[in-house]
Amino acid sequence: MRPRTVPPRVPSETPNLSEEQSLVARGFRRIAGIDEAGRGSWAGPLVAAAVCLPPPEADLMRFLEGVTDSKQLSASRRAALYHRILECALDVGLGVVSSATIDCIGLARSGELAMAWAVDDLSGSPDCLLIDAFTLRGCPLPQRAIIRGDSRSLSIAAASIVAKVTRDRLMDAADRVYPGYRFGLNKGYGTEAHRKALRERGPCQYHRRTYGPIRALEGTLL
């Protein structure tokens, strides 16, 4: 089934509630913002979050002041905003797809799967989705794919923070299992220290072996 798309509004510079307000004006009441973290990482899971915020009013903007694209925030600022988002959100869902699954079905399908699982993890079904750059094929819910949505929609920005903080914690746990790769610092991304550890140790169970850099390094280790 093809998703029913809802045309986006004119882009804005920083996350606000214009997208959510336009949907409320069309009769939608339970709007979920969706984003993912870990797409470009060499190791670890892909994590998606779905966040349903309260009705889009000025008080909500003030309470969530500073919420934006998670990549623009320091770890400490993300953590503080993460707790604030959980404090006010009506509902939060998570979808986690392992590196092994990414290797089996590919990144694009894994991204869709993580986001679909995040929606399914919500305690109540939303009536519309705001998604950063993607649409969910096979999902019958009305949805908007918004380019740079984590910089434009407060709901998507909130989801980006929840996804990023959740994934970082999973990589911190992976670091305790395999400390030699320094996952707690690089979060699985391709830093020079990470590349050096791969040359010395080879990949571990958290690595995405279908990724070009891992395949290339494995080739030199054979």
- Class based on secondary structure composition and strand pairing: alpha/beta
Q: Any idea what the shape is?
A: globular
Characterize the main sheet: 5 strands, mixed
Helix content: 40-55%
* Uncertain stretches of 5 or more adjacent residues: none
- What's the number of structural domains? 1
CATH topology: Nucleotidyltransferase, domain 5
The rounded distance between the terminal residues' Cα atoms is 45 Å
Give me the CATH superfamily: Ribonuclease H-like superfamily/Ribonuclease H
Order of helices and strands: HEEHHEHHEEHHHH
Strand ordering within the main sheet: 3-2-1-4-5
CATH architecture label: 2-Layer Sandwich
Helical stretch tally:
9
Provide the CATH top-level class.
Alpha Beta
Give a count of the beta strands, DSSP E runs of length 2 or more.
Answer: 5
Which helices and strands occur, and which strands form pairs?
Layout: H1 18-25, E1 31-37, E2 46-52, H2 58-63, H3 75-88, E3 91-97, H4 99-105, H5 107-121, E4 128-132, E5 143-146, H6 154-177, H7 183-186, H8 192-201, H9 212-221
Parallel strand pairs: 1-4, 4-5
Antiparallel strand pairs: 1-2, 2-3
Helix pairs in contact: 3-6, 4-5
Task: Please sum up the structure shown.
The protein has 222 residues and is of the alpha/beta class.
Q: Would you write up a description of this structure?
A:
About 45% of the residues lie in helices and about 15% in strands. The chain has about 220 residues and is of the alpha/beta class. The chain has a single domain, classed as Ribonuclease H-like superfamily/Ribonuclease H (Nucleotidyltransferase, domain 5, 2-Layer Sandwich), CATH 3.30.420. It has a five-stranded mixed beta sheet. A hairpin with an 8-residue loop joins strand 1 and strand 2. It is globular and about 55 Å long. It starts with 17 loop residues before the first helix and ends with a helix.
